[in-house]
Amino acid sequence: MNNKFRNNPELKPLLQKIKNVIATLDGKALPLKFMEVCGTHTVSILKFGFRHYFKDSIKFLSGPGCPVCVTSAHDVDKIIYLAQQGNHLVTFGDLIKVPGTHSSLEREIAKGATVDVVYSPLDTIKIASNTKKEVIFIAIGFETTIPVIAGLVLDAYAQQINNVSILCLVKTMPNVLRFLLSQLKGEIDGMIMPGHVSVIIGSEPYEFVPQEYGIPCAIAGFEPVDLGLGIQTLVAQISSRDPKVDNRYTRMVRSEGNRAAQELISAVFQECDVSWRGFGSIPRSGLCLNEEFSFFDAEKRFRIKVKDEVVQSACICGDIIAGRKSPLDCTLFRKNCTPENPIGPCMVSFEGACAAYYKYGE
Amino acid sequence: MCLAVPYRIISKDGNKAIADVFGMQKEIDIRIIEDVDVDEYVLVHAGFAIQRVSQEDAKETLELLTELCEAEE
Ligand code: SF4
After folding, report:
1. Could you tell me the domains of chain A?
2. Are A290 and A296 in contact (CB under 8 A)?
3. Where would I find the H helices in chain A?
4. What is the number of CB-based contacts under 8 A between chain A and chain B?
5. CA pair distance B17, A39, nearest whole angstrom
6. ipTM of this predicted complex?
7. Is 0.90 surpassed by the pTM of this model?
8. Which atom of ligand 1 is nearest to the CA of A354?
């Protein structure tokens, strides 16, 4: 194991114990296949050497937990259209380089589009107060980020800031997992659930995974010891043939999640079918603004004219976030596709599997 | 993008607070954290406090983070 673990006395014995238990599993084909749903976990697994350490015993599959990676090219085209119409866009930095069908925000900025990168969606209010232009926040993210976006909408409403809207592309976890599990039957031995999504939704929404699919689940944090504890419970559950949702991140995640955050979300949003890169539309896998706040919906405020084009590409990002392929299976990886010149979103985002393999993969 | 980090509240004013992590101070939004006090810890994501955390849990997380930063060097 690489020396990044040197300062942590608990970790090495923990990992050795996991290996010992794996060695005693009978009737189970190795390597075990674990999906880490969250992109930040993908980064941790590569960065801290877990992939290498467990190379014969565990295969880590990336999941759909990278907000930029799951945004479809069609949705990126909508963002670019809004920029081309002279609106003032506000976004998280990750989206800038993501290629749409014909352009990217980066190229539109070079041509004079106005795009602000923010740390918090709430900054959109200040930006909108200082301009007469229409200001559109590009709302991507999962349950961790959705309360913040709800906060932005409520602030704009309360302060009557009428030149703010959001392009709502937010997505939620439980039903995309259901979709993937029904496709990957028998191909997954365990799931590591996203730690900070779970802070909001709690552990209860994952109960269907062991109950209906018989698959062990761990809620884990992002530090090496956290991940080690997550992997340990998955292996133990396989060994005891007792799949459940085991919360190994109790210092942050409560079983009921954060009710106040959930209330904030349901005050502003309602469930809807949304479309995911590589998967198409999945029932009730995202949120849109409810009736009361539909005034802030950029799709309603602007007539977004974008063709639904299918462009042939060798990029297999959609298969990677479905756990079907690894970045190393992509013929463009490292050769044509690099973080400086990304062809797909999985190479753009810091949390994208391709970017993580590029940076930390051997 | 879904990463969240524990911050210590330094001062507050309505829905907003100034909070500190590793000596860095930021304005954060605390509207969903009921009656949070100065010196308490909250988990912050994208400028928004999403959860109150105990001092012990916050310290443990920050220690793990510090270890990682050192290991990075
Ligand atoms: S390496 Fe590039 S082209 Fe290949 S799957 Fe990843 S993002 Fe797509």
Report:
1. 1-16+33-314 (3.40.50.11740), 317-360 (no CATH)
2. no
3. 11-24, 39-47, 50-53, 73-84, 105-110, 123-129, 146-158, 173-183, 195-201, 208-213, 224-240, 259-268, 298-301, 317-320, 345-348, 353-360
4. 106
5. 29
6. 0.89
7. yes
8. 6
